[in-house]
Records
---
Amino acid sequence: MATKKKGGPAKISGKSSGKLPGKLKVAVCGASGYTGAELLRILHKHPKVEVTAVTSERSAGRSPADLYPQLHAYSGLTYEPLDRKKLVKKADLFFLALPHAASQEAVSFFHSKGKKVVDLSADFRLKDPAVYEKWYKTPHTALKSLGTAVYGLPELYRKEIKKATLVANPGCYPTASILGIAPALKAGAVETMGIVVDAKSGTSGAGRKADQALSYCEVNEGFKAYGVGVHRHTPEIEQELSAIADTPLRVDFTPHLLPVDRGILSTMYLRIAPGHGNTDISELYARAYEGEPFVKVLPPGEFPNIKDVRGTNRCLIGFKVNERTGTLIVVSVIDNLVKGASGQAVQNMNLMMGFRETTSLEDLALCP
Amino acid sequence: MATKKKGGPAKISGKSSGKLPGKLKVAVCGASGYTGAELLRILHKHPKVEVTAVTSERSAGRSPADLYPQLHAYSGLTYEPLDRKKLVKKADLFFLALPHAASQEAVSFFHSKGKKVVDLSADFRLKDPAVYEKWYKTPHTALKSLGTAVYGLPELYRKEIKKATLVANPGCYPTASILGIAPALKAGAVETMGIVVDAKSGTSGAGRKADQALSYCEVNEGFKAYGVGVHRHTPEIEQELSAIADTPLRVDFTPHLLPVDRGILSTMYLRIAPGHGNTDISELYARAYEGEPFVKVLPPGEFPNIKDVRGTNRCLIGFKVNERTGTLIVVSVIDNLVKGASGQAVQNMNLMMGFRETTSLEDLALCP
Amino acid sequence: MATKKKGGPAKISGKSSGKLPGKLKVAVCGASGYTGAELLRILHKHPKVEVTAVTSERSAGRSPADLYPQLHAYSGLTYEPLDRKKLVKKADLFFLALPHAASQEAVSFFHSKGKKVVDLSADFRLKDPAVYEKWYKTPHTALKSLGTAVYGLPELYRKEIKKATLVANPGCYPTASILGIAPALKAGAVETMGIVVDAKSGTSGAGRKADQALSYCEVNEGFKAYGVGVHRHTPEIEQELSAIADTPLRVDFTPHLLPVDRGILSTMYLRIAPGHGNTDISELYARAYEGEPFVKVLPPGEFPNIKDVRGTNRCLIGFKVNERTGTLIVVSVIDNLVKGASGQAVQNMNLMMGFRETTSLEDLALCP
Amino acid sequence: MATKKKGGPAKISGKSSGKLPGKLKVAVCGASGYTGAELLRILHKHPKVEVTAVTSERSAGRSPADLYPQLHAYSGLTYEPLDRKKLVKKADLFFLALPHAASQEAVSFFHSKGKKVVDLSADFRLKDPAVYEKWYKTPHTALKSLGTAVYGLPELYRKEIKKATLVANPGCYPTASILGIAPALKAGAVETMGIVVDAKSGTSGAGRKADQALSYCEVNEGFKAYGVGVHRHTPEIEQELSAIADTPLRVDFTPHLLPVDRGILSTMYLRIAPGHGNTDISELYARAYEGEPFVKVLPPGEFPNIKDVRGTNRCLIGFKVNERTGTLIVVSVIDNLVKGASGQAVQNMNLMMGFRETTSLEDLALCP
């Protein structure tokens, strides 16, 4: 690339080559999919981080820039197979964006070697291995690591994340949904029964693959529900909401596939608890997220668009108290690849490492 | 146009010019918007109908073919202002696709002159003028016609429509939602409390107009809720569901704007009534819609895509009994401009005139 | 399906079951892709045709309605493997939508048995087997059939098609491009050197398959050129334009991939021939396509949109004489799956069988 | 906004409020459209710049954050009417994104007061006032400023821009097209006759406004040419290419409207000059753009996608020598709002101010 020879910004060429003194060395395992690519995009802006290794079985020997022209700055980096012993020496913090189940072993290996780990799979999100096995149809065999894992939703567990060595990065739907429900539920303003989470996600949430059902002509101008009543993010949402409510609860969670690249919008229906008809929901939510750098509560009756947060780590929340029905309707939006995955992973890394929490996550969204 | 001079199909050129003996003469009032254009598209295929007049204040003097290249077959027809006295002589059946409130006067005029009317506005859908005034912020002044109007959902009121002289064509969201809920509610299989209707519509539902909020760059790659808790289709859904349940009920209805041209998908959450845990929902829905030419119930666990029905008058319904939560989740899809508006209007006309109900509504959807 | 039991239109259920007396029996070989599905969609409307067999190796045993919910009317028909001896008894006319090269054998078999054939592959479009071999990298081994094949562009070869037993249905890009260039070239109004064809196609042109490069997130919000200088439609365009000009000529043909489902727009640059600066191009094109049912020439300075013809067999042509540069710029649009494939195939069948040419091809496009 | 109260990054809140010592004060005139918003998005990342004023007649009194939720960081800034005397005191450098003609007066005022100006309108791009008047139908009345304006394409005029006080920021189509043609033309490898520029732009190029023709349902699933032979970017392209070729030349330039938010792809056809059949185009282009931070030449036969550069200031160039026809085909892509407008404006500011040229323009594109 011509830009490499001279005149290119030092930062770009330096990012992918030698090890810079004073920077945190990080590896991204499973870096050929959309989530991994998004991690690389965000880390490119991070002044305190150097990506020293990327893995991909299928694309070993190629560069991120070969797979994604957008990642041209990483032309000096080469995918390698996930050889744990080799990798463990190359980095101090590991991001894992591996398929579910595959993550268990790798995470516990790096973790046992004293490395910090942010796992973007579902393997360490569910505290109860029996629940994991029930929904993921495979036993959990890394119970020791599981016991120390912290659920990486900073708005709920910032203190724990700061001290964590293993963070289970939340799912995209749970992030949007839990942030939308938590304040009302915590305050007891809504009932724990009859919670409905009707969620819609952009197509990048399905990952990068050759799949006829995900081909352009099938998705474009279409819209459908999927995984109705059986989606694996259900127990994750229930676990966190149950913890907040301090009582076991269940939710109806229905995901839908949107014909857009990015974005999740979650529409939630909560029954106002007796005696809370006059609760000031606006005040309640504002207070809950006061000082939060990435969560914004909109004025009553205003609702967010997924386009408002595209490419950013932000979560916008709108709400309406429907007095006719006694329902609190909450709508939250995030970018499924950022706050719903890689951006939140970087936020967690920032917390774990004592970096400023918003580092490399401050850019504004494209408009349009 | 070259095709008009010779060789063009007789049907095309004949449709828009002289009056053909033996054909029903119909006028389309408010024919310059998407709903009116869709009526013209469908009526073009109708062997027993001749469109003799189209009205538009803004586009008077121009032809439907000028506004829509797709309507090239109507180049011989010219929009005229809505002069009721002139129009009343031109047709035997009137479709009105006028803005709400504007429809009241025109409908009652044509109706009083013994003409058949299918009104696509909301003006004659709500039986109770007080409810109309509350939601539409204007009094109802055509009470006589209102008293005779039949709600034009053939799956519920086929018998009445056949005898009707004034049919109030249902709204797009109500059509999808009522068809999805009716069988379970009628059978008493679900409760009348806590009904949630989370609906998503393509952008054509907003009509054809110059509006920055509807411009391509604002809608594309976006998704948002709107009219939360206050959308005017709410009382229409409630009226019909209350009638079915034989008790007043309320619903939480939340519409969303999809970045597609056409299609409505409605996701509905219904609480299984005590004692109905074992009801065979599949059987119940199949029986309810047996013989219906435009409604299809999918096998349990299968869910429809709006793309499956684009350009057609069909309604597809999928469902899932979520035993973990005691909820019946129903998903229905229609094309908002066809079964949600103009196609259903033609279906109603067919019923009113004794034509075969499916006439000009039998084409298959484009795939893709 | 409930609609089958009673009340459904006879035509729908009849189409896919028993053999109707007096109807032409047709088979569609390779009916699981978009082109085959589009054939089924169009033939569903055809009053003189009965589809008696559909083939697909991959989907044998399933129904078109299983693969495409849009084709619900074909639930009674089952894909079978392409067993030529079995098939030859089932139909009188064969549409073949097979991959290139695979078509040669099947076409010549059915053809040799006295069946009429419309081949939608490229195998019988190029008259010169050497040119075929050069561009398709495989020899042509069905020379006898090739010798009798007629290039199925009715606007150029209507007379020959009427008498043909084997029609080679044109490619999508060639259809749009040849129709746009033919009148000017034939009249000698433009030079044969320096012809540029810059064409853009919707994604359905790539067929239905699992291919990462065609996945939604790769195509959406994107646009790119492909096959620059090497696309196989080049020799087809050159063959027909050379025949029109009566001299060998070459073109620069560049296809691009549009993020839409359907449509081809071809922008063509032709150098005005000396002495033709004052030629009335409008008159020339109007005369060339006078009486053509599917081609429309727009007034000077007006240009068509692919959306105007979606789902129809029409070709719209706009043009501009750029006096500053001495260039005639022509823009033509078609639906790549209709006039660019299956619609034109039905048009050819209509001509071959003596049916009215426009039968089942008269519907108006959806707007929007 | 909760994020403002505490914990928010200092940079965000500081950007839009008080004047920071040591930062360049800039004003954005006409900051309510997409181009202005894009400037604000990019400047938000700029460590050496402070936006001290934004103007908009229509939105005076509101904040950029009111119009664009994406610009939340600018909630402390308020649009004001363009009062030149008031404004001139507020900033040292002025970006003007005003409508054509309106820019003339404002630019010459700020310029005459010793301020640096980057004008994003077309008013100072054409050197010859007669050409300006011919294409823009209005006389040029700021001839003094016009005489000193530098055409702001850094790859051609970097040296001049560094010393300029008034930079005329190039149009989006000209940027993509000139960068694609310049190397071959400068080297004399292609002829100056018969140049074809077939360009396609995303819809944001049309600006933010209420316009039925730009509404979602009109643009989506559509594609069309516009301004054929008469688009105002034609003389701009011709001026620059003529200067490069050192002889007056003309081009056929045809723009098209793409159903995407952002991106321009320009496909260019150039006739290989006699004796240049063996010229190494790859080497020629590589050398021409050696060291350029934002231009990348792809290997022969590879072609760029607009999606590769979305949100970035990059220009990717692919090419193919078509030996069959003697044509060099070049394809270039940019983001019309970045390298085609606001990003290039910031690049120009960086050069004028002696900042590092790539400052705030180094982020990678979103994928997908």
---
Amino acid sequence: MTIDFQAVLERIAAEMTPLAGRSGTVASYIPALARVPAAHFGLALRTREGLEASAGDANVPFSIQSISKLFTLTLAMRRMGDDLWERIGREPSGNPFNSLVQLEYEQGKPRNPFINAGAIAIADRLLGHGETKAELLQLMSDLCDEPIEFDAEVAASEASTGYRNFALANFMKSFGKLDNDVDDVLDFYFHQCAIRMSCLQLARAAGFLCRDGAHPQDGRGEVTSERHARRINALMLTCGTYDAAGDVAFSIGLPCKSGVGGGIVAVVPDQLTLCVWSPALDASGNSYLGMLALERFAASTGLSIF
Amino acid sequence: MTIDFQAVLERIAAEMTPLAGRSGTVASYIPALARVPAAHFGLALRTREGLEASAGDANVPFSIQSISKLFTLTLAMRRMGDDLWERIGREPSGNPFNSLVQLEYEQGKPRNPFINAGAIAIADRLLGHGETKAELLQLMSDLCDEPIEFDAEVAASEASTGYRNFALANFMKSFGKLDNDVDDVLDFYFHQCAIRMSCLQLARAAGFLCRDGAHPQDGRGEVTSERHARRINALMLTCGTYDAAGDVAFSIGLPCKSGVGGGIVAVVPDQLTLCVWSPALDASGNSYLGMLALERFAASTGLSIF
Amino acid sequence: MTIDFQAVLERIAAEMTPLAGRSGTVASYIPALARVPAAHFGLALRTREGLEASAGDANVPFSIQSISKLFTLTLAMRRMGDDLWERIGREPSGNPFNSLVQLEYEQGKPRNPFINAGAIAIADRLLGHGETKAELLQLMSDLCDEPIEFDAEVAASEASTGYRNFALANFMKSFGKLDNDVDDVLDFYFHQCAIRMSCLQLARAAGFLCRDGAHPQDGRGEVTSERHARRINALMLTCGTYDAAGDVAFSIGLPCKSGVGGGIVAVVPDQLTLCVWSPALDASGNSYLGMLALERFAASTGLSIF
Amino acid sequence: MTIDFQAVLERIAAEMTPLAGRSGTVASYIPALARVPAAHFGLALRTREGLEASAGDANVPFSIQSISKLFTLTLAMRRMGDDLWERIGREPSGNPFNSLVQLEYEQGKPRNPFINAGAIAIADRLLGHGETKAELLQLMSDLCDEPIEFDAEVAASEASTGYRNFALANFMKSFGKLDNDVDDVLDFYFHQCAIRMSCLQLARAAGFLCRDGAHPQDGRGEVTSERHARRINALMLTCGTYDAAGDVAFSIGLPCKSGVGGGIVAVVPDQLTLCVWSPALDASGNSYLGMLALERFAASTGLSIF
């Protein structure tokens, strides 16, 4: 069966665009995010073979926020292999309110790399291995073959209002679970969240996840091993969408990683990567229309890992 | 690619059998489980097309325990459709100690159908729809085309020592979340856990999960819809192995449902169902060798949903 | 300084009676409590020397409910001395939602004798030492020198709707922290809660707490030792009024034990015991007017342990 | 009955001194505390009338740490009256691990003024009312009629290692429950903990708590109202000794406030204030010998609020 992906995406965009901004709420904790118009909708995909399709605002850059955790995790797994898991778990985190609770019970070891505490721990590990913000940008640019930048205003706003992240980082530090200075770790973390990319760029950049770890740009070797790529997909499925992971697996059936900027990256293993974007969020903090679009995509293509 | 499954299973059984009983601990909370010899190992699979393969103690019946939750969930989804989810969540449960904690925060609504509280809630719903223990046995017998029985001694022991399950059921009742009498609900629940089946019988019985919901025995219609079958697989992946679900997704990459009797049912969607059994359990309550065997199976066949 | 207690109580009754039933809610979880008219108010006291004063509905019997925990604790301390504290803590319980949470963390050991779990544990210990319901009634009758009875309807209602208490008892049993049969323990517990007494009877019965443990009726020896009497007062202050203990110490400054029947017993060490009753409860489950009356009493007499 | 307090204190010191440093552990989280010799023991008291008694190392200054919370609370109640309680509760905090848990459930409102979060919240309120570190020192000096100083090394060490306090303050800030800059609030808090005083100075400074709020130095008016003084005593009893408050009420029966420097201030309302010091701490973080000495004091004098 061959699917006309361009037609599928256009049909979804046609359905979603009139709804854009009608439901959900744009993240408002920092001004630079709050002023993004809610009425955006875009999506793009790239197949294992390199075919691309897109519709709507697929080329409009947005703040990737927690989607960045996918790439820092990839870097950290590459750098440290299984040693990474001494400081970070691989289990879903249960209830939202558990963030600090669980960190307390588990003595400063975050449950998984996709909750904030886990991503902060990964930033600490990357700094400890000499990784820099510049190198992260370099990786992102290389993956999508276009220059990628931080949004300096977003990074600065995150830093000046990120009290909960300061609380998390200091809490882990109090358990001896951060090696680097709290301010340095959070500077890295706030910058990774402030990367700006479009749907098409993210669909490309995540491409290694549907091609056994191979670089999305042919001839550039592998980003990570096949084994690691499949394991990252597994973590996305069980932990990638905040407290809605069980529901997303149930309703969509694809590994996904979302961000409060309204983007969601999804993977159909061995076939394609997909990115959808619409800024208004549902109660779980995932893009409201993004989730709806992914359900339509899964239903109309029959693509599901289950 | 065709895989010689019989050869694969034999190789795994040859590796595992010498290790059987060497690590882990047999469940000992009731005498009938405690006296099962630790040194058993068996596994069996059945493909979508009906081919079967098995090795080791694949025909020795054991107490299926929580694997039964797979079948009561299937029945309840068939009976109630999406109404089922008013009383039961679909999210992983986080830490083990959370069982009662979460039930308290969530006012008696269990996080998912595979934790004890969730399965008790499902038993309540089934009773409320007129389902009986006899009908459950009838379903199991029909699925594997052989008579299936309860182990009366196990059911009686569960009832006489199941204080924590009595606590859970009374707690849900105190929140108005059980319709039926606590004793009736637990009688059903203790019996479902006391069903005796072999690896081969379970691989057959779960067959509908790899064939779009169709009955494992051709010509007998569908057990559930394709949509429901895929969703049950999703729930197995995110919630099927107690607090190790994230790790199992990461290391094995297949939907699994385990029981403290030492059995684990796994599904390769669209391809096959597999059951492995070895009584000694790891710290998470999953079969120690069973998990190891599933890792080998996934690694040697390359079968993974990711 | 001599205080005209009769005048004080009459003044308080005159202020409170018009307010009776205006604020708060009568406990409604069982019909026999729900149908008690909200508009009752009574109070009575008895000094160390045996002088009595009373006003309002001081002779109307009501369901003493958790006030009974004071007397079963006294019995258990007498029977077991410090061994009692192996199974029961002496610390305030923090938040209401913690009941089961704390029991889980602390492996079935209740935080203190005045939360339900603690009182159930004490009932278990008393049964284990051969104490009976009849002997408890005998003690209560002896303390106030009048026959005291259970309210059979209340006891039966508690038993038929007490799912949360069944949950607590089964949960402790699952940790091996109850020696006796759950049903027997709860039968004792539900009966102690169903004792009917008036304010005057309770002020008399608790008299040993203001007279170094000596029996309220002169010439009958001691109910408990001086050391135990002072320690029971300490437990009342830190744990006697559910989750409002800190506030009660702050605002009233006297050891108190309340019940959902609307009664509150208070102690002025070395001087007097006091009982106030009004059925409508505040959000913490303490008598709304009872608390107000105790604040007036403390303010107008200057009696406070601080 | 008149008690020869000097003889009582000498007897206790004679019993305790040989035990000093034998049990418990000196706080070691900062070097300046860790190097205090464990073998110190001192105690001092001052009666309502101004009589003083002391024994052992009663004049050796030590780091008062959390005992400072008593004085900042007094200041804040004086400044704000009941408005203070909008941001801070008055209930015991339950388990140790609850610090952040409870703060999360209660949306950044600390349970009471004596846990770290509560004292940080009070420091924030004091800053908001224009209070300064210099004024706090001025108050302390005035109360004991001698110049009192901060230990600059301790304050600096607290600041450089106080990750958990940074976590708490940032967490409250994330809930909008701190008005001032986190660094400013913690600078005040770390300094108040670094005040150095001796037993005798603390017994004097706390004197207003046993004399209806009147200044310990006659003729200087009142430190706080009688009502506030009694309420502070109540808070000390229910919340003043970390997670041992129930036990301290039970065993000692006096309002106490302890610090990790090994000091404990106790109050006998209307009669005297007492301070004991010995650096080695028990598992709850209270001075091991200090608690023992207070038990002896209460037992030998019969002084108890119960």
